Amino acid sequence: MDPVAGTFLRMLFLLSAQPWSTLAAGNTYNCDAPLASSLPRASFTSSSELSSSHGPGFASLNRRDGAGGWSPLVSNKYQWLQIDLGERSEVTAVATQGGYGSSDWVTSYLLMFSDGGRNWKQYRREESIRGFPGNTNADSVVHYRLQPTFEARFLRFLPLTWNPKGRIGMRIEVYGCAYRSEMVHFDGKSSLLYTFKNKSMNPIKEVISLKFKTKENNGILLHREGPNDKHITLELVKGKLILFLNSGRANLPSPDALMLGSLLDDEHWHSVLIELLNTDVNFTVDMHTHHFRAKGESNYVDLDYKISFGGIPGHGKSVASPHKNFHGCFENLYYNGVDIIDLSKKHKSQVLIMGNVSFSCSHTQTVPMTFLSSRSYLVLPGTSGEDKVSVVFQFRTWDRAGLLLTSQFQQRSGALVLVLRDGKLKLSLSQPGHPARDITAGAGLNDGQWHSVSLSARGNHLSMMVDGEAASMAHSLRGQIESGDTYYLGGCPDNNSSHPGCANSLGGFQGCLRLISIDDEAVDPISVQQGALGSFRDLQIDTCGLTDRCLPSYCEHGGECSQSWNTFFCDCAHTGYTGATCHSSLYEQSCEAHWHRGNSSGLYYIDSDGSGPLEPSLVYCNMTDTAWTSVQHNGSHLVKVKSLNGESPHPVFFKYIASMDQLQTIIDYADNCQQELTFHCKKSRFSTPQDGTPVSWWVGRTNETHTYWGGSQPDAQKCTCGLEGNCIDSQYYCNCDADRNEW
């Protein structure tokens, strides 16, 4: 049969697939009222004030009394202006001014927020880690609408830069409205079991929405089961949310797993939305959405009439991950519009409360600190002259290496140096006249998770514990030790290069520390912040500023993302692409490109869309006077076609090694496209119907049905011989339609 120009066969019969799309609708409301101007002066606090007339109480927008705004005692990057809104509010915009009639204004700043006045979180504009542009003079107002909005009671403005001919000066306003919510607290051993009133409530579509916050990096948020071990489980695993979808089909033993979010154990609120419609799933965490369509006929709505929040009741059936209940708070928990927390508070029969839950959410008192650069350090006093050394803390980082701690014993009798190297902790002990001794513990500690460290030296024993695993060196100390009076965490001051460990070639630690204890005394970071304890440089106290630069990942074509404190990296191995983000293809875009390079005929990978989303495909390049691209399929051998009962059609499918999108792109770039189909017949009509119904047809690239062949016009029902007028029986347009008893 002659070529069919400009198209290709998918199959011989029509199959249709109806895509599903979700339309989200939201209510608009007015939430732009000024919140700060009506507050009492006591609601404004600051790191310091230049004078009583420069106090934070004068920092309201357009205020002219006092000195006409807030200015700190010293203009440096450690100053802040804080507002207590009095209640948790939705914040939709902020505005800033400089000091009234002065040369004092802020040109850029960070905006932080918190529920309880501790453990602050930076507001990031459109995924940017940079701050807000500020003012260019003292009195004009710079207004920013926040997208997205956020909810908080406390806000902090942290000046980054200011007028170089003046000092820091600020007046501010915050806009928004009161925020009301229902909350429930799970203690890690409790859960809520919601039961539908009756089976008729089982919907075609399900929508589950909630907010959560926790300091634990593992725990089950919700679970729902069905027959044959079918289930849906939402679980926090190492600070990431994973939605496990088990279809209950025996041929698919492992569940599908959709993963979103990162560092979600930061004790700040995170939003979750799950939409289920038959085989389609939309999974959204903090405005990032994963769209998923299940294979086959899996239906995740056809489940039992019970759904558990906070854990799995009794841990009766296995799921794909550990059965640890959630420990933390939920807010505004809804299932198909039903307020689950409200039902629980009213002790309605639809909700069974298991264990101890409370309908409020306490605020954390843990105060982390961020080491912003390799030059950051924290100097803390020790208990000089003690016969032991003891240091405990927790850290999290993306960096594989960095100096974490160094301390010198009394009378220079030795020193301890703790470094992170290749994702492992290495504790080195040096004493005069003796070779240095090392302990190495842990692995992969640069994964962004919190890791606990405890090290001690006493008598002749040195030990270190990392995440509960101990490593020690017995009889490692020579002589009696006496603890020194200073501990350096992170890096070292510039004038201490002679101190053991400070001359280390590694830069200082970059990441977050918390729960620091020196010589059995807990360190209060707020005292450090206020200058009452120790000293520091390049620290951000009362926040962990760790950022996941791999969320979202900018690595294309399946490249694996990894990161450090400052940047991210893409591993492009086995992707077929190269470059910083795996963007540039390693393959030519067409057979013609190979032809121009002088390559001979053969099998080649081509990347038909260049750096687009399609993967490279394997084709045969036939090099003649031009380049022909041949895409292989499974129909190159003879297949016997016979109807089962003379009435049922016999479908033949052509499966290409390239995807439909790859085929489409190859065709779009081609000057000419053809496909040959040869049909051997004996007593078998091919085209001409007897009763007006076609006896053969083919399905094209967009699921359209055609009954013409050999390059004929649509609906002509002709083969090549019919077009050329040389069929063996002139009354037919295809040779097979002569219905002869011969091949």
What does this protein look like?
By secondary structure, this protein is mostly beta strands. It contains five helices and 47 strands. Strands 1, 2, 3, 4, 5, 6, 7 and 8 form an eight-stranded antiparallel sheet that branches. Strands 9, 11, 16, 17, 18, 20, 21 and 23 form an eight-stranded antiparallel sheet that branches. Strands 24, 26, 31, 32, 33, 35, 36 and 38 form an eight-stranded antiparallel sheet that branches. β39 and β40 (568-571) form a beta hairpin. It is elongated. The two termini are 14 Å apart.
Give the helices and strands, then pairings.
Elements lengths: L32 E2 L9 E3 L34 E17 L8 E9 L6 E2 L9 E2 L8 E21 L8 E8 L4 E5 L3 E5 L9 E9 L4 E8 L5 E7 L2 E7 L9 E5 L9 E8 L2 E6 L2 E6 L12 E4 L17 E9 L2 E2 H6 L5 E4 L2 E2 L10 E3 L5 E5 L6 E9 L5 E7 L6 E7 L2 E8 L2 E8 L9 E8 L2 E6 L2 E5 L12 E5 L20 E8 L2 E2 L2 H5 L5 E3 L1 E3 L18 E4 L4 E4 L5 E2 L5 E2 L5 H6 L5 E5 L10 E7 L3 E4 L29 H10 L28 E2 L5 E2 L13 H5 L19
Antiparallel strand pairs: 1-8, 2-3, 3-7, 3-8, 4-5, 4-6, 4-7, 9-20, 9-23, 10-19, 10-22, 11-16, 11-20, 12-13, 12-19, 13-14, 14-15, 16-17, 17-18, 20-21, 24-35, 24-38, 25-34, 25-37, 26-31, 26-35, 27-28, 27-34, 28-29, 29-30, 31-32, 32-33, 35-36, 39-40, 41-42, 43-44, 44-45, 46-47
Throw out a few tags for this protein.
single chain, mainly beta, 8-stranded antiparallel beta sheet, 4% helix, elongated, disordered N terminus, disulfide bond, EGF-like domain, signal, repeat, Laminin_G
